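New to this. Explain these tokens.
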Amino acid sequence: MTPASARSRNPKPEHPSQPSRRRYAVVAAALLVAGAATGCTSNSASSAAGADCDTTSYDAAIAAYTSGGVIGKGPYGETSAPATSIELTDAEVAQIRAMNATAAVVMHFSGDSWSNAQVEALKAEFDTLGIRIVAQTDAQADPAKQFSDIETALSAKPNVMVSIPSLDPVALAPAYRKAADAGVKLVFMENPAKNFQPGQDYVSVVATDNYGAGVLGAHQMAKALCGNGEVGVIHHGAQAPTNVLREQGFTETIEKDYPDITIVENKGLLGPDWKGEGNSNVNAWLTKHPQLGGVWCFFDAPCEGAIDAARASGRDELAVTTVDLGNNVAIDMAQNGFVTGIAAAQPYDQGAVEAKLAAYALLGKPAPAFVELPSLPVTRDNLVDSWTSLYHSDAPSDLQQALDSGR
């Protein structure tokens, strides 16, 4: 069936400036061209869709998102500033370097490709700016530990702190309040702590277009299933805006645009064993719903578990779509496995923007309250190009080997 516009549910937001829009449209268009295919997909996991599936409408829906700019708004309804507008002059960089400023990086968890890229970009940009990182923490998906990590980081007396409060924006707010009261300049990843106000309590939020990532994943799933079948949804159990928006983007688009696809399960996970929890839930779903055709995950690690469950159950036809281009789901896609589509965030570029906004605060330079970067569609055919673009590095050798062996 032909999908309706992915934007028809919400009022169309004002788009970023034309230079920014062109930049991301060019990247997205390049990835789409590299990934163009004539069949529903080359992955065996989606063979249930049929070799004669007409993908025109699904490809058009994906292209409409990638060419249209970000969909989401900020936590207080802000329109996103273009990421490319966050720049520092040579004179400003020299001024910041002379400050000998320090920074703390407080993560919700680490070790995944998204977090690694964020931290790598922050380190690189802070190094350019002469800002020394005096604390770097990993909460291991435990809100209580992250609360303690914030307090520990404050003992190092950083001038700025970059952190992500998506585990529990309410419970973590008092710890971030201590930071703000101590004069630490806060830059948030994805969403702010509860009741924090931009320009007053924090500098800015830098986010993925999380709603758009869910929209993109829905169109990718519909393409894999040729618009018909049963799917399960794995979302984050913590009700932070980042997590809620990804799920809403997926479920609302499926319900609105694809009435012949039914969401039969929707489970929230809290980690830290994302892969194990994904495995156990999808294993149960495959027994309960023998016709289950696909699984969507709010990020890549739970979908690693979904893949393991499918293999253990002897299933070779389960379409998996997810958010974030992680190494393991990328390898599965390269091997013509279960992963049929990825809505990829741009974590390295996010980290670089976050560091620059921290510098804005040190300079007293006015900063936008919200900066959002669009998600980009990844297929097997544009996998290596996507990796290079998103992570600013060559694709891992095992990914290239998987592509070669899966041809």
About this structure: Confidence is low (pLDDT under 50) at residues 1-48. The CA atoms of residues 164 and 189 lie 5 Å apart. The longest strand covers residues 261-269. The radius of gyration is 21 Å.
